[in-house]
Amino acid sequence: MKWSKSFPGKWVLAAAAILIGLGGIHSASADPSLSIRIGPQGPPPEREDARWESPHRTAVWIAGHHEWKEGRYVWIGGYYSYPPTGRHRWVQGSYPHQEDGYYYRPGHWSN
Predict the structure, then answer these.
(1) In 3D, which of 87, 93, 96, 86 has the Cα closest to residue 108?
(2) For 24, which DSSP code?
(3) Which of 43, 53, 76, 78 is the most exposed place for a label (fewest CB within 10 A)?
(4) Which residues constitute the domain of residue 92?
């Protein structure tokens, strides 16, 4: 396909690729104020999670956990991630119970 000078197609494609690439960054840095109402069912029991050697001294282990996705619990195996800055620490996600059921609060980086 040949692009005309008036059509910014390659710039649109490049911008889309960058935005798609950045989308993965947010998965480990969710908004800590976000909580999702799940309902009466609490999370399943945690699974055994094999932790391997750290790839780097600054890497932080994110323990395996259940996430609420598309109306059901999904197990996310543990993995290493890197804090946005050296001062950040990982806050594991939680499932607080309130009068109207369980809520899911995603894990996030906190400073």
Answers:
(1) 93
(2) G
(3) 53
(4) 30-110
